[in-house]
Amino acid sequence: MIPYGWVGIDTVYVKVDEVLSDETAINREWSVFPNPARDFVNVSLPDRPRSGDLHLVNMFGQVVERVQLNGSPLYSIPTYDLPKGMYHLRVISEGEKASLKVIVQ
C-alpha cells in the first residue's frame, strides 16, 4: 500500500552521457591554480599534450572559454569577464577526458 500523497514507481531509467574517471593519466598529472580565480586561471599540463582542448564550462553546460593544446606545459585562461560562480575545466586530449571544478570570484 502506498501512503497518501506518494506515487509508486516501478522502474527508473537514468541516462549517463559521459563518465569522467579520476584514474586517467591527465588527472594524475594536471593542476589548476589559483582556485578560486579572479582574473585568470592557470592550467599546468606537465605531460605537454600536443593535441586536444581545454574547455571552461559554466553550470548550464555552455563552453565559455576554449583553448587549443599545442604542447606547452602551461596555459592561462582569462576569467575577468565571466560571472562569479562555479565552472568545470575540462581537458580533452588523445581520447582522454578529465574535469576539475573552478570557482570564479
Short key terms for the protein model shown above:
single chain; 7 strands; four-stranded antiparallel beta sheet; mainly beta; 1 helix; elongated; 105 residues; Immunoglobulin-like; three-stranded antiparallel beta sheet
Task: Give a quick rundown of the structure.
The chain has 105 residues and is mainly beta. The chain is built from 1 helix and 7 strands; from the N terminus they run αβββββββ.
C-alpha end-to-end distance: 50 Å
Pattern of helices and strands: HEEEEEEE
Sum up the overall morphology in one term: elongated
The helix count comes to 1
Strand order of the largest sheet: 4-3-6-7
Q: Which stretches are low in confidence, meaning pLDDT under 50 for 5 or more residues running?
A: none
Strand content: 35-45%
How can the largest sheet be summarized? 4 strands, antiparallel
Secondary-structure content class = mainly beta
Residue share in helix: under 10%
The CATH top-level class label: Mainly Beta
Count of the domains: 1
Radius of gyration: 18 Å
**Global mean pLDDT:** 84
CATH topology: Immunoglobulin-like
Please provide the count of β strands. Answer: 7
